[in-house]
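We give its fold:
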Amino acid sequence: MLDGRHRPLTRRASLDPFQMKTKLSSLLSLADVAASAWSECDVALTELNLAFGTPFEAAKDNLLTDIRTAEQEGFDLAIFSGADSKFKFDQYKTNIIVRVSRKPTPHTKLEKLAAKVEDLEKELKLAKLKLKQQAELLVQSGDCDEVTDKITLAFTRLK
């Protein structure tokens, strides 16, 4: 179908279900299989998290708290990185990697640059908003069509 400017419309018209190659029954069958698999996985992951995830997170939080305290007291954390890391545990085939990110202390030159970056980020945010608004106006007026960008799936637990 062409509009007044002789360009094809990209909006999907409602098609006759008998002309489509993909059948609703096929999609419903595939969805049933996916829903069943997701439900089983969700239940198993919940059980797994209760059995192993919760104790792991507690142990990790305790270690991290003590590492932060040690660093504040001047402890050299370099012994926990590299080939000779003290956090390599062969019996568990596990290496705990301690990543330390640092930031510079306040400085006027950095503050000025940070303020400029913040202003540019605000400008970018406004430009993106204007682009979105302009696109919506063009679609509403019929001067521009929409095409599918991507399709995703989300699974949620029914209440």
Notes: The first helix runs from residue 24 to 72. The two ends are 44 Å apart (CA to CA).
